[in-house]
């Protein structure tokens, strides 16, 4: 009787021991499935980005080769892709010196960048994922710079350009989700650093304005 009870207890313990690894394996499979879904989303947005950049490159080359060319995305005088894509800011982001070997259409940089992200997405290495995150973050900053040029310098609304901005935001959100899922980067730490940097520049700007106001008051007093 005693031996039978011992055997029953041993079977129960074995069953409990088998359940724990099974749960871990199930959790690992769910994590892998989530990462795979995010990878597919990232690759999809990058492919759409390649297509949009390729079309923008076609419009730019056609507008330069054929004066008076009107693209499908030229909707009005202030919504003209060809006008934006033939401006001085359409090559080398407007900051690379004229005549440089790197002064190529921004669209080419975009195509290369999207293809690079697709390649990096196939890896799950921690350092590769971190590199992917920071590259995508730099691309998002570039999108903000180009959006500023559209709104305040060129005063135009390029449909293709705005589409790539939206694509970049969507892609960045997917990459952030991937980073959080894999736990390879402390996003909150970098958000805190950005927040502290913004506060520093605001304080510096306030002090600069205060110093300027003090100098003006002293100059007015000296003039009196």
Automatic annotation (TrEMBL):
It is a multi-pass membrane protein. Its EC number is 1.17.4.4. The keyword Transmembrane applies. One of its GO terms (cellular component) is endoplasmic reticulum membrane. Its main location: endoplasmic reticulum. One of its GO terms (molecular function) is quinone binding. It is an enzyme of class 1 (oxidoreductase). CDD domains: VKOR_euk. Residues 35-179 form the Vitamin K epoxide reductase domain. It holds the Pfam family VKOR. Keywords: Disulfide bond, Endoplasmic reticulum, Membrane, Oxidoreductase, Quinone, Redox-active center, Transmembrane, Transmembrane helix. The chain crosses the membrane at residues 38-58, 102-121, 133-154. It is found in: Endoplasmic reticulum membrane. GO terms for biological process: vitamin K metabolic process. Belongs to the VKOR family. This is vitamin-K-epoxide reductase (warfarin-sensitive). The lineage of its organism: Eukaryota, Metazoa, Ecdysozoa, Arthropoda, Hexapoda.
């Amino acid at each position: 009787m005693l031996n039978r009870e011992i055997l029953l207890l041993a079977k129960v313990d074995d069953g409990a021991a088998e359940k724990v690894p099974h749960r871990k394996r199930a959790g690992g499979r769910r994590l892998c499935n989530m990462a795979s879904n995010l990878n597919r989303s990232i690759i999809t947005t990058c492919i759409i980005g390649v297509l949009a950049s390729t079309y923008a490159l076609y419009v730019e080359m056609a507008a330069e080769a054929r004066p008076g060319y009107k693209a499908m995305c030229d909707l009005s005088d202030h919504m003209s892709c060809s006008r934006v894509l033939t401006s001085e800011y359409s090559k080398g982001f407007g900051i690379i010196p004229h005549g440089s070997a790197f002064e190529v259409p921004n669209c080419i940089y975009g195509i290369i960048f999207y293809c690079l992200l697709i390649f990096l997405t196939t890896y799950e290495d921690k350092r590769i994922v971190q590199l992917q995150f920071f590259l995508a973050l730099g691309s998002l900053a570039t999108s903000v710079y180009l959006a500023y040029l559209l709104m305040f310098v060129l005063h135009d609304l390029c449909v293709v350009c705005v589409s790539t901005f939206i694509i970049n935001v969507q892609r960045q959100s997917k990459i952030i989700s991937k980073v959080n899922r894999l736990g390879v980067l402390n996003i909150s730490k970098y958000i805190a650093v950005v927040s502290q940097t913004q506060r520093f520049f605001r304080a510096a700007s306030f002090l600069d304005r205060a110093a300027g106001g003090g100098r003006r008051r002293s100059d007015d007093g000296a003039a009196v």
